[in-house]
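Late entry, pyridoxal-5'-phosphate complex.
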Amino acid sequence: MTDPRLDGTAIAASVIDLIGNTPLVKLHRLTELEGIPSVLAMKMETTNPGGSSKDRPALEMILAAEREGLLRPGGTIVEPTSGNTGVGLAIVAAQRGYKCVFVMTDKVAPEKISLLKAYGAEVVVCPVAVEPDDPESYYSVAERLTDELGAFRPNQYANPNNPRAHELTTGPELWRQTAGRITHFVAGAGTCGTITGTARYLKAQNPNIRIIAADPEGSVFSGGSGRPYLVEGVGEDFFPAAWDTSLYDEIIPISDQESFLTARRVSEAEGILIGGSGGMAVAAAIQVAKRAGPDDIVVVLNPDSGRGYLSRVFDDEWMANFGFVQECENCVGAVLETRGAMAELLYVNPGQPVREAVALMKANGISQLPVCKNTPPFANAEVSGAIDELDVMEAIAVDPAVMDLPVDKVMGPRLPTIGVGQKIERAMKMLEAAPALLVLSGGRPLAVITRTDILSYFQAAAGSVVLDALTTEAGRG
Ligand SMILES: Cc1ncc(COP(=O)(O)O)c(C=O)c1O
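Prediction complete; structure with ligand written out below:
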């Protein structure tokens, strides 16, 4: 509804009118620090009312549903989401008089639930530990609720109005804001709405504009198996409807470590607080911008703010626990160096027979083995549990046929984890309650350590103190 009293003022008619038209800013400090020859600019999606790029598809999907008669006055929107799309949908729903029900798993951080409730949405929490076809799974519950409530389900992964939103808004904004001089566009891909929609518009203006997708290492878009990685909101284990390689010139895989460290760096150096997926996109954009020429304009899209990730990317302890940062000089990594076994970690697959696990433990004189999926290569391993010599021995004593069972039938819980850069004292404390620890580096499993390894480290350290003393004496003599 237009209000003629606003004519001539800069007052927006509603919060919906503030979606889009986000600013573009040169990453001035990063350009200096990295010696970037081209112009590197960031599209700041944080200035959308919901604080993310997802406001755009949320609005477009609701407007299209109204046009198509899928959403009637007072209707309900049901979507399985815990993130930015939920916020966008809740904002538009509030303005247009719809109810929102968001379905999510009990793995979701409590503040995400509170955030959506704060917008007046109803949140249904389902157990994460069930199969997708279980009636309790969040997919099944979302489907049932959609039917029961006669609700509209936007389904951003399949909805063509998701990429269309970016084709209608993000693309034209970038073209206008760079006076048609944009040469490269870099963005992370999740549903692929952003990259595909924006690319469609930009390529139609100038087919030479290069479109670059940044992807978490491990995701299917850059050739991975789909997991595991820790960056949120980007990468997938399947190809969504908007995935369109004919539009992408390059897909750059970026590790969790580089994504998180870049997020921290951009936040500190530029004063622009960004999250892990923004860090991932910037890391890819730095590569692109370094290769580009002085007349090129490289635009990277930052999808949301680092505020949503304070307890992860910006938490020193969380980062150290996954082995993303060093807490000290002589830390867990030094124990591994002493052992001289930074080499490969031994593991078994969940489907391997128990006898193979036993043989591996015997051959290497070890008592615990992590159980990992998605191997090889080990870089893509997902740890699902652990085999303990004692437990296996007891099970075999009761029933020798256990030897031929798959490992996942007898495995115990995962070993407690510690970062490669965390303090040795912490490892000692943890080893009071566990037989072994899984050491993580860059978020990935690196090695298993036990009390014996720590003892050997102290023994070697004591030995080198004696050696130091002897050589100093000899020097004096
Ligand atoms: C938090 C978050 N969600 C989603 C996306 C992906 O956008 P889309 O779903 O449009 O591919 C990004 C992109 O970087 C993101 O950071």
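The mean pLDDT is 91. Will revisit in the morning.
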